[in-house]
Design brief:
The structure is a homodimer. Chain A is of the alpha+beta class. Chain A has 2 domains: about 1-90, Protein Yojf, Chain: A, CATH 2.70.180.20; about 105-220, Trna Endonuclease, Chain: A, domain 1 (3-Layer(aba) Sandwich). The first copy, chain A, has 4 helices and 13 strands. In chain A, the strands form 2 sheets. Chain A has a 7-stranded antiparallel beta sheet with strand order 4-3-2-1-7-6-5, with no helix packed on it. In chain A, strands 9-10-11-12-13 form a 5-stranded mixed beta sheet, sandwiched between helices. In chain A, a hairpin with a 5-residue loop joins strand 6 and strand 7 (about 75-90). The longest helix of chain A is centred in the C-terminal third of the chain and has 14 residues, at about 160-170. The first copy, chain A, is elongated. Chain A starts with a strand and ends in a 7-residue tail after the last helix. At the A-B interface, strand 1, strand 2, strand 3, strand 4 and strand 7 of A face strand 1, strand 2, strand 3, strand 4 and strand 7 of B. Strand 8 of chain A pairs antiparallel with strand 2 of chain B, so a sheet runs across the interface. The structure holds a DNA duplex.
Chain lengths: ~220, ~220
DNA sequence: CCGTAAATGTCGTCG
DNA sequence: CGACGACGTTTACGG
């Protein structure tokens, strides 16, 4: 990994065209050839970048300035014109062991599958990830009245309502299942989603992740 | 901006839980307090990060190791346990002038507003960003037959069709405008979106950004 | 400050 | 390899 702090101008041409006027920035050149240009704010997003695979060439400009030219086989090009180098160092980082992540949405679905009564009294699980032609329904439940299709989301927006609506349309064409009711279960439901769901007779249920997890493994709260 | 190359372990607890086992990584501490941890690959995405606003504290661990503790008011926490520092430097980058981008959706909308006939013979512009209760319609056009609502996207997916469908439902409730036809104009239309649009009588038009720009400023192609 | 839509989104997964 | 959906999406913009 090479770290460059330099006064530079940056030109990107590819999926769009972007220009960064001259200023001091961090230029990060990674072992896989990828390059990104960072300002002194916004942790996550670089000002400009080039994803691997790409090739890096270093040239001398007409006025003696250094030009870094990064090209990708996709026809994208990033040109960094360096007028002043304030820092330049290289480092060997070795292998990255990778991270282990404990996802929330999958966990939420698992917990709701084990505690379906949270979504309504008398509800029992038929199956998780019920397959349909247009994709799997997160949870399929039933009670004395009939079948319920559940869409599980961490943050439910309009797209979640639309998704569930498409599933319900399809499921309700099956005379054995119909009528199927819809439930949108999420940690947070956006107002627009709540309104649209209301118009379509879909219930919105806000679920408490911590409470579900505590109910699943009561011992955890002791630590 | 502070650059740290260090052997470290990273723990994130917040919207999910993630652990990075000990390895050598780049730790980037920016002027706005944000922190991100990068491996030697993947230009764009940090292994772990904390967005502003957040606060950074530096502590000494039980075995004398340095611990960077980053906390956000949203209840997220990032803990970096440093066992060995290989590089440590700070740099003043000054102000970032910001970038100018060309070729984003707004640009596409502007060009289509100036050349509506691209979307259909005889079409003329009524207005851009036509306001409705559920948000602005990108373009409202008319021809001899009636009114056309246009949703402009760079890449049109199902959500674009849904968005336009909502607008059409609303516009068609207005007896003065109705009947309003729908057009989805995009540089790329996903198959699923094309199918759904077809079912709903919405036309999909693939637009050529370069051609639109050339027609807008013919001189450009000479350079 | 909240809500909404765009993004050079990026990243995994599955057909 | 392409389509599709999730993401600790992040980021910008408007009420």
């Amino acid at each position: 990994m090479r770290l460059l702090i330099a006064r530079c101008r940056v030109d990107y041409a590819g999926r769009l065209a972007a220009v960064l006027p001259e200023a001091v920035r961090l230029i990060l050149i990674k072992a896989d050839g990828s390059v990104c240009v960072h300002a002194d704010d916004r942790a996550y997003k670089p000002l400009n970048w080039m994803n691997p695979p790409c090739t890096l060439r270093e040239e001398a400009g007409p006025a003696g300035e250094r030009i870094l030219r990064v090209d990708s086989p996709r026809g994208e090009g990033l040109t960094i014109t360096v007028s002043e180098v304030l820092h330049d160092s290289s480092h060997d980082l070795g292998v990255e062991p990778g991270s282990t992540k404990d996802g929330v949405e999958a966990e939420l679905q698992r917990l709701l599958a084990e505690q379906p009564e949270v979504l309504g009294a008398g509800l029992r699980l038929i199956r998780r990830e019920h397959p349909t032609a247009i994709g799997p329904v997160d949870l399929l439940l039933r009670d004395a009245v009939g079948v319920v299709a559940v869409e599980v989301k961490r943050h439910a927006g309009i797209d979640g309502v639309e998704q569930l609506t498409r599933y319900l349309e399809l499921l309700n064409r099956d005379p054995i299942l119909a009528p199927v009711r819809g439930v949108l279960a999420a940690q947070q439901v956006r107002p627009q989603a709540r309104t649209l769901a209301g118009e379509r007779g879909i219930a919105c249920i806000v679920v408490d992740y911590a409470a579900l997890r505590d109910a699943d493994e009561p011992g955890d709260r002791l630590f």
